[in-house]
Hints:
There is one protein chain. By secondary structure, the chain is an alpha/beta fold. The protein has helices at 10-17, 22-31, 48-66, 73-84, 113-124, 138-151, 178-197, 199-208, 239-248; strands at residues 2-6, 34-38, 41-45, 100-101, 107-108, 157-162, 211-215, 227-231. The longest helix has 20 residues, at 178-197.
Amino acid sequence: MEQRISIERLEQAVNLFGSFDENIRLLEQEFSVTVVNREGELRVEGEAEDVSLACKAIQALLTLSSRGEPIAEQNVRYVISMVRAGKEEKIAELTGDVLCISAKGRPIKPKTIGQKDYIASVLKNTVTIGVGPAGTGKTYLAVAAAVMAFRDKQVNRIILTRPAVEAGERLGFLPGDLQSKVDPYLRPLYDALFDMLGAETYQKYLERGNIEVAPLAYMRGRTLDDSFIILDEAQNTSREQMKMFLTRLG
């Protein structure tokens, strides 16, 4: 079976194909089809079912490209998984919804439907618990939402906290002052803030008290009013610590 897809602009084709045609090669491999670009249209050949799925994936990627989204291997693999699950119509929802602009001018926004639902819950609810594998953007997107709320003057402070050790363990002896002892445990939070605010702006807000970064053990007795609070790595907290923290949030 052969199916043809028209491409309106050359820029879309360049974005879709990727560097050295890596995106199209990945689609061909995943769906066992052949894709050829001829006279402003893509010709997809293969078994009928494979061609149908491949064309759905290509149309979804073209939709993302037409709305200014760069197409990389991560996008292609996610679109492939959505097409196989029969959810390709939801891919258009990923365009827009920019949370904030990083210090280098890069827009930060959800890249998957799960991330989009996660951010919608964070912005809507008083308390949101995010559960998922490492590297899925839970902390990074939460920090982006906090920066957005702070810039929009919805809150006056951003408080980032996480346990410095596993529940039931002790920090033990480490050389240096308190800040140097806990900094390695808080590095993911620092990295996210540096990316979105820049080192100088971050330092300015830190000195003013608009941003606080501290281990959970040192949050007892702190005032949490009018704040956006992120508790990272909460699975490492004890039941007593979590109960105390949630009670403070009301």
